[in-house]
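Contributing new records

If you add data, match the layout below exactly. Sequence lines come first and carry their own label; structure lines follow with theirs. Keep one chain per record. Anything else will be rejected by the validation script.
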Amino acid sequence: MAVLALLRNADEISQVIPWAAEIALSRNTALHVLGWHYAAAPIPDGEFSNRTIEAALGRFLRKLQRIRAISRLEEPGNLEVFEVGERDADECAIAVAQREDIELIVAAAPDQTGATGATLSSSTLLKKGRCSTVILFGGAKRSRQPGKVFVSATDSAHDGAALVIAHQLAECGGGEVTLARQEADYEEVDIEVGLRDLRKLLRDTGLESSTRIHCRVLNERDVAANAQLMDAHDLVLLAANSPLIASVVELTRHPTVAVAKRAPALRPWRHAVMGEYWNPFLSPADYADLLETLRRGSMLTLDFLVMLGLSTVVASMGLLQDSPAVVIGSMLLAPLMTPMLGCGLALVQANPRLGNTALQSVAAGLLLTVVISLAIGMLTPGVELTPEIYARGAPNVLDLVIAGASGAAAAYASARPNLVGSIAGVAIATALVPPLCSIGISLAYYELGNAIGAALLFLTNFVAIVLFAAATFRLMGVRTSRTRRRQRRWVAGTVAVLAIVALVLLGPLKVSLVKGLLQGKPQPNSYPLSASVIEALKDYVEENPDVEILSAGRPASPHHPSDVVLVLAAPFELDKAYGRELIRIVREEMRQPDLKVEVHCLRELWQEKSR
């Protein structure tokens, strides 16, 4: 890994080389210099050659011997100068960076005023480069010593890259870093929110313990004071795409101004499609929190068993009472999702130990849940299975899709601290405990077919959650670089088994889906009328105590010819005028004079006569 300094012409040497050298020294890496024949200048081909660059560098190195980083470059192997004969300097630098394993490119902006060249749309290096990039503004007459560095945070995806570069320079040179952000409303609460955002940035970059970084919140309206503060520093670093670059260059005189772009963590095809700001990779702090949370949550502990046992009791009671609200409450209590995510993490990390630990927790939780629900089912004799229980006994392909999406959502939310609140929704969507409770209750009532269906639903959830969680973690950058052949075989074998199980499950799940479609969904014959309509009808019917309203509602079928259907019962034949009056009442109460209303009257076939 090395730092690449791009020189489009000899005039850029005094601006680019000092900062490139300081960055290379702070990263303890070599510096490569790409000398370029600038096609726009009237210089014959070959005049700006390696020899020309080396001579110019030699003069410049001797002139700047007082700069510690430049003297370090004269050590063997630390400085390499080469030239590539292509027409576009930026494209050439990008190609060299990919070929030479460059980790950061340093270049001067063609427009030193900052009006252009500071955004992904106006700079080829920023837009197409696959490594970190620093573009310098302000010209060669500005400071070239990184004693004090100012970093302006603007909620950009590249703030972290700018802060890391600044901290490395400060650590290497014994300097200080001012990390600041500007707030439009400069009230006490706004200052506190700004400081929290800065502390979060420090945490995301793993620099929260650094003593060289000082956080400040500035008043966005006090432009002069902000410019004066920046002018007291040697380097002002902003994130790529920052709207402040031109104004900072204009208002300051002393510091070098630069924009920094982080290396895109996405693969090239994903970067091209989704763009830099859609990068889902984890910060080091979030990565560490994720590993810690899932490793602890995957352990078989007393807390895990207690919470799972209580959620099983709640879920079993909710299923027996046919209460969706109680069942949903049990889903929020159950901790069974965490070890399943631990299984997905173990696959991505090639960590059999974590995988075995998480799998043991899932197996123990499964056994505990089935035993408790079986006991509850046996202690409640005479109660029939409810629709809530039967619903878990007929899974289909849609449940596989739901489980896969829920597993991906759970993995993504677990890795993002600001999305922790979404875990509750994931738990409700997945519903891991109710299928297990349905197994136990169904076995207690000798409903073997429903128990098998509920077991199939749980297996579907488990396989889909583990596979999709592993895929999500992988896309977010969770992986291990050191794996033995045995670990790789374990991952390949486990993934193959889960994939085969998923394919086998598709058969019965598809059959269940087709069967459900052919049978149709149960729905009511009619929807109730409003209370005002019912009361008006009752007031009229009560005048004749022998007449009774059996049903009154709106037909559920869209093919029914009428809008409202009334069914009456009477021991004698009613007059048609009676029916017309009921129709009038319905139309008047519903305020629809053209409403189609049907009135049916049933003669009572049997009636007990009083003696």
